[in-house]
């Protein structure tokens, strides 16, 4: 039997305060000139973590590892800076399978966004990877701030967006998002978890994909939805490329991926509000 049963969490109050939005924009490498009056789409991670943290605390009484495998965000409109949100969460299902539990978790901030997360929770740590030598705290490969782009034709490749995060960037993201899982900032904890060293937050990579998609809209609510699959972790100081193609134009939908050394780390589809 799973240790997790259908259960509700919250509501939790979150304020999209100017300093919090600014810190999130800086931590994710977004455009600070664009996000002054509204929060970027990726800020949905702040709302999700606020309520999912209660789930993780509950899960850690039994499970040794939690892996974020899939994430979907649906936005209802823009989020004005200064606005207060009431966020709730709910375990939709928890299915046991060979020593792991597959959890579907829904979160909502009414009037702004809803989300669905899939987590794989394991009773033992991941298979051990060899311990890595961590880069220096501020070492980062080339990383670009997104700029407006024209909408390509169907099937045409999207202009790529280069991204990377230093260990300091990952720590800044932990503070900006509220996700303080130590595998993202403490080397020994990450090694003990079988990861070889610290990894970037999956929702940081989600912000990068959201930034790449938002380049094709000037609206304060540039995305209708973002549906992601996390395939492999991203490490600090590693060059990552956000690319993709246009899937359709009415509505504008993008098939996107983050690749590292040619391998897909995250895949996604986004709908862009034109």
Plain-language structure description:
By secondary structure, the protein is an alpha+beta fold. It has helices at residues 18-28, 44-59, 167-177, 187-192, 202-214; strands at 8-15, 65-75, 84-97, 100-109, 113-122, 161-163, 223-230, 240-249, 252-260, 263-272. The chain has a single domain (8-272), classed as Thiol Ester Dehydrase, Chain A (Roll). It contains 5 helices and 10 strands; from the N terminus they run βααβββββαααββββ. It has a 10-stranded antiparallel β-sheet with strand order 1-3-4-5-2-7-10-9-8-6, covered by helices on one side. Strand 3 (84-97) and strand 4 (100-109) form a beta hairpin. It is globular.
Can you lay out the helices and strands and say which pair or pack?
Blueprint: E1 8-15, H1 18-28, H2 44-59, E2 65-75, E3 84-97, E4 100-109, E5 113-122, E6 161-163, H3 167-177, H4 187-192, H5 202-214, E7 223-230, E8 240-249, E9 252-260, E10 263-272
Helix pairs in contact: 1-3
């Amino acid at each position: 039997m799973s240790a997790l049963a259908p259960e509700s969490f919250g509501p939790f109050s979150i304020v999209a305060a100017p300093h919090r939005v600014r810190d999130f924009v800086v931590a994710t490498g977004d455009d600070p000139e664009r996000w002054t009056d509204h929060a970027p789409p990726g800020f949905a991670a702040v709302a999700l973590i606020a309520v999912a943290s209660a789930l993780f605390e509950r899960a850690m009484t039994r499970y040794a590892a939690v892996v974020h495998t899939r994430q979907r965000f649906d936005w209802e409109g823009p989020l004005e800076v200064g606005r207060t949100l009431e966020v709730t969460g709910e375990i939709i299902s928890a299915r046991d399978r060979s020593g792991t539990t597959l959890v579907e978790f829904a979160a909502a901030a009414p009037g702004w966004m809803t989300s669905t997360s899939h987590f794989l929770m394991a009773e033992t740590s991941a298979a051990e990877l060899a311990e890595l030598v961590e880069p220096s705290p501020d070492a980062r490969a080339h990383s670009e701030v997104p700029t407006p782009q024209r909408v390509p034709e169907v099937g045409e490749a999207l202009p790529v967006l280069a991204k990377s995060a230093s260990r300091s960037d990952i720590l800044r993201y932990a503070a900006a998002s509220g996700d303080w899982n130590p595998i993202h900032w403490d080397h020994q904890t990450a090694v003990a978890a079988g990861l070889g060293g610290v990894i970037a937050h999956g929702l940081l990579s989600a912000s990068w994909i959201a930034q790449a998609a938002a380049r094709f809209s000037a609206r304060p609510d540039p995305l209708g939805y973002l549906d992601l699959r996390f395939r492999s972790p991203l490490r600090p100081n590693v060059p990552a490329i956000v690319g993709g193609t246009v899937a359709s134009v009415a509505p504008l939908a993008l098939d996107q991926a983050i690749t590292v050394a040619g391998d897909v780390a995250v895949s996604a589809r986004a709908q862009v509000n034109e």
